[in-house]
Amino acid sequence: MNINKKSLYIIVSVLICSVIMSLVDGVISPPYAYKSALKIILFLLIPLCYFLLWNDELSSLKKLFVPNKKDLKLALLLGLGVYAVVMAGYLLLGKFIDFSGIAASLTGGIGVNADNFVYVAIYISFVNSLLEEFFFRGFAFITLKKESGRIFAYIFSSALFALYHLGMTSGWFNPLIYILALLGLFVGGCIFNFLNEKCENIYPSWLVHMCANFAINTVGFIIFGIV
Fold first, then answer.
1. Quick one: DSSP state of residue 124?
2. Is 62 left (phi over 0), alpha (psi -120 to 50) or beta?
3. CB 206 within 8 A of CB 136
4. Contacts of 141 by beta carbon, 8 Å cutoff, 6+ apart
5. Can you state the angle between helices 69-93 and 175-197, rounded to 10 degrees?
């Protein structure tokens, strides 16, 4: 692992932003619009400041958003598989999860309900997933890997991706399911990194991430009685 000014900026900023968002989700629970605005500031503007501070990295920033058709085909197949696995998990493990409690935490905490869930689901699937992929894979993995080394970037970005979800999913599951979910998020983060590593853009993981969110939102539609 190498530590220099660039890697230190990435490590410290990703750690601070992830902890802040986890606390906002799990403790403060502001309305969803305010939380989303804060996430945009932390997950978009903080990384962009890095690329502005080091102009030699601007070409790397542009490369993060250049797609490769071959990589997208594989990612689409994997994404469809993820959708199927999540839905199968819902059918198999649904009895161990208090979905009424999840709905109550959403409606009472951040103001998400059956009336606005469609709009929230669209935002989560397309915008929020892109924001997270840019932050955790484009910034905390691909960019960090060049400065700190491959293994550390893999572990760090995946661990912070799981940490970020701590507050968001707090109280949703029993302890065993909760631990398994966090472990799954870490493994998922490693898989996302692997998908993006060769092409050095964020589109493969974004496509799979969208499919995972489609599945989660499908469960949300069921919880709220929309479908």
1. I
2. alpha
3. no
4. 153, 154, 157, 193, 196, 197
5. 170
Q: What are phi and psi of 223, to 5 degrees?
A: -60, -45
Rounded Cα–Cα distance for residues 6 and 143 (Å): 9
How would you label 165-201 residue by residue, b for 16+ Cβ within 10 Å and e otherwise?
A: bbbbbeeebeeeeeeebbeebbebbbebbebbbebbb
Q: How many CB atoms lie within 10 A of CB 20?
A: 16
- Model-level pTM? 0.89
- In angstroms, the CA 222 to CA 152 distance is 39
Query: What are the pLDDT digits (tens) for 195-220?
Result: 999 899 999 999 999 999 999 899 88
- What is the DSSP track for 42-97? IIIIHHHHHHHHSGGGHHHHHHTT---HHHHHHHHHHHHHHHHHHHHHHHHHGGGS
State the Cα–Cα distance between residues 189 and 162, nearest whole angstrom. 8
**Which residue bears the tokens 């996302």?**
192
Main-chain phi, psi angles of 146, to 5 degrees: -65, -25
pLDDT (mean) for 105-134: 81
* H or E segment to which residue 6 belongs: helix 5-23
